[in-house]
Amino acid sequence: MRKIVYLDMDGTIFDLYGQDGWLEKLRAEDAEVFGGDRRIITEETLRIFFPSDEYDVRVLSMTPLNASKEYCDKVIEKKNEWLDKFFPSITKRIYRAYGHNKNLKNSENAILVDDSEPIRNSWRGKAINPAELWGWFFYAPRQLVPANDRKLYHISPPNVKWFFDFILILFLKIPKFWVDFSFENAII
Ligand SMILES: [Mg+2]
Predict the structure, then answer these.
(1) Which of 30, 43, 113, 126 is the most interior residue, by most CB within 10 Å?
(2) Ligand 1 centre and the CA of 105: distance in Å?
(3) What is the pTM of this model?
(4) Are 64 and 72 in contact (CB under 8 A)?
(5) Tens of pLDDT along 94-145?
């Protein structure tokens, strides 16, 4: 039997917090904030982590905090459109009202991938921070939102691991760059 994976959208596969004025747009009930090619990862990348023959990936997302019923319906429509376009292989989608708990009947045996720490902590099964899957260095700049907004939306604060990843990348990438660079120059 395939293992069930519940995948969050905002801040996990959809770059909501990386766009200018996202919080103002949410408060103004602008549904366009959930549109556009704002993929944090592609469907192909997702399938490297969770191949279809081993994992049954489903979306488990929330509607915005303190929003009207009309806006929540519009947001769900927009999120479905976005998934149809960029993650068409995920056809099972669950949308819940904003809160800190996403547990479902089968949580114990399912994996949750979610950027929210309180949601991960309350999950009864295995919960994974997307930054640890997709990579901190790549993911971290998208999470640099003002502390108050971060608190409101339970986005993980900057982590010391980012620094170590940065150092690691410097060591791995920069010498390679210099080797390539001098080699090209030597040929010229
Ligand atoms: Mg999220």
Answers:
(1) 113
(2) 20
(3) 0.76
(4) yes
(5) 999 988 789 999 999 999 999 998 999 999 999 998 888 887 656 655 555 5
Domains, the chain: 3-156 (3.40.50.1000)
| Ligand 1 center–CA 169 separation, angstroms | 26
Q: Using the Cα atoms of residue 43, residue 161, residue 113 and residue 119 in order, give the sign of their dihedral.
A: negative
Distance 2 CA to ligand 1 centre (A): 24
Q: Which two tokens stand for residue 96?
A: 């819940």
Residue 166 CB contacts under 8 Å (≥ 6 apart), including other chains: 137
Distances (CA, A) of 65 to 40, 48, 186: 22, 32, 58
Of residues 130, 124, 58, 150, the one with CA closest to residue 96: 58
